[in-house]
Amino acid sequence: MSDHITGVQLSQSFHDNYVVPRLSSIVPTLSFASALVGPGSEVLGFDTPMSRDHDWGPRVMIFIREADVSQREAIFAALHRAAPASFHGFPLHVDQSIVTTVPAYYGRRLGLSPARLFDGLELLDWLTVPSQTLAELTGGAVYRDDFGELTLIREQLRFYPQDVWLFLMASVWNRIGQEEHLMPRAGFVGDELGAALIASRLIRDVMSLCFLIERRYAPYPKWFGTAFRQLACANELLPYLEAAQNAKEWREREQALSATYQIVARMHNELQLTESIEVKVTRFFDRPFSVIGGNRFSEALVANIEDSSLHKLAAFRFGGIDQISDNTDFRAIQERFQSPSGESNPLRAFFDRLL
């Protein structure tokens, strides 16, 4: 097998030449879905030879009907019995957890009870799910779907509903508006390190906004820059973002950031979600600092949110879990602290209390 094979290609071969023949032999009437989804750089298409040093190899998730859960042991036995140590030269580990149901797996990852899964996420639920998780659950590849559940839930999760989309973009514009004048202010008093740190935060916010504008889920930090380069806006923005990141003096950063703000402001107007907003940077009141006025874009987006709960929550405008925290463990809190019924999503409870 070629050293250049991707995880998606390897798993496709594993599915076609290992999983399907074994299941067809032992449980020939079984209806199932199979896919490469979940954690793993290969799911997002970012795997390299270095990815193979841990948790990379031939694998698929097998999704069965609730009515067929009683056959789970037989299915696992069919996959595990006399399993070779490797497949196409890569270590093979057949784990029992790969056989599950769509409601059980997707419900756990989303912090929902399995019974609620196909009712769809409520708008506030969307704010509790990291974009990395949504990318994992909608990325990868589906190799088979006999009864359509997997295709249905992936389509439901394809991207945020309109009002959630507006809310999240408004929240990022608000973050920019809160900090765009702080970078030059720190530099003005000689704090170049502080100015550089604030600039990095603003660069990340601009990049996050671009993912939202282009209706893409942003991955976690390891692949954030790599995925950004795949966006349509990347070629235009990257020279300015890199200049802002690498600048040695705050006025250079300000000039580069001002260019990025104006490009992203133009992108906002091209969405035609709000009235057209002036895209030129201006002075921050009477101070010699250039800003775009991120709050203008934030307020315009909030004004178009129709859902009453999200509109009320927009008074706080701190966004969803990705804007609230960068802490990896905290982002996974909705998965780790569920009751058996799956109804105790602590992040959802937090948002509900604010209403």
Question: Could you explain the architecture of this structure?
Answer:
This protein has 355 residues and is an alpha+beta fold. The protein folds into two domains: 7-156, no CATH class; 162-324. It is 52% helix and 8% strand. The protein has 18 helices and eight strands. The protein has helices at 7-26, 72-80, 102-110, 123-126, 131-138, 149-156, 162-179, 182-188, 192-213, 221-228, 234-246, 250-271, 294-302, 308-313, 321-324, 328-331, 333-336, 346-354, and strands spanning 32-36, 61-64, 86-87, 90-91, 99-100, 141-145, 282-284, 287-291. The strands form three sheets. It has a four-stranded mixed beta sheet, with helices on both faces. β7 and β8 (287-291) form a beta hairpin. α1 (7-26) crosses α2 and α7 (162-179) packs antiparallel against α13 (294-302). The longest helix is centred in the middle third of the chain and has 22 residues, at 192-213. The chain is elongated. The protein starts with 6 loop residues before the first helix and ends with a helix. The mean pLDDT is 90. It comes from Paenibacillus solanacearum. Residues 126-224 form the DUF4037 domain. Pfam families: DUF4037 (PF13228). This is DUF4037 domain-containing protein.
